[in-house]
Amino acid sequence: MQVGEIINKFREEKKMTLIELAQRSGVALATLSRIENCKMTGTLESHMKIAAALDMALPELYKDLGHSKKEVEVQTKKARTDVFVHAKSASSEMLASRVLDKKMMPVLIKINKSGATHKEETRLGIEKFIYVLDGKIEANIGDEKYNLNKDDTLYFESSLPHYFKNMGSGEARLICVTCPPTL
């Protein structure tokens, strides 16, 4: 939620009009209207005045700041449309929508027999977690190679150059979670 939505919610709960809030807080009516309609955020000083006028502490005004209204997202297999192909031998399928707005990026990676993903390298501070759903893979991370089988996991700093190679007799499928999200 944005601060304007929170102010509006508390003002309406107290059955106070925008004009009454402006009079009690000393914040201009036009400014309050812009804040509540998320056209501007206002200043710390205006937030303190508004909180006092609503008979609440400033931390209470900020407690839901940034929390989305929709905290649960279900995505059916049919709804997944973000699929990226790596040189025809591997693909990545986004398992959540709007991943760059989230704190982690879950991806299903499919690698054809004898195929591999492209080589990646992220900026420092990005981490990856891999869970092997099916198959056998060789994870090439930096100068090291790691052999993983079904149900094995791997956690690493993804600023190291890395790619995954299918070493099995069929398609390999991996769940990859990147945190924070990056493309």
CATH fold node name of the largest domain = Jelly Rolls
Strand content bin = 25-35%
SSE-based structural type = alpha+beta
Distance between the termini: 26 Å
Integer average pLDDT: 89
Tally of helical runs? 5
Spans with pLDDT under 50 lasting ≥5 residues?
none
TL;DR of this structure?
This protein is α+β, with helices and mostly antiparallel strands and 183 residues long. It is built from five helices and nine strands, in the order H-H-H-H-H-E-E-E-E-E-E-E-E-E. The strands form two sheets. Strands 1-2-3-9-4-7 form a six-stranded antiparallel sheet, with no helix packed on it.
Please explain how this structure is put together.
The chain contains five helices and nine strands. It has 183 residues and is of the alpha+beta class. It has two domains: 60 residues, lambda repressor-like DNA-binding domains (434 Repressor (Amino-terminal Domain), Orthogonal Bundle), CATH 1.10.260; 97 residues, Jelly Rolls (Sandwich), CATH 2.60.120. It has a six-stranded antiparallel sheet with strand order 1-2-3-9-4-7, with no helix packed on it. A hairpin with a 3-residue loop joins strand 1 and strand 2. The longest helix is centred in the first third of the chain and has 11 residues. It is elongated and about 75 Å long.
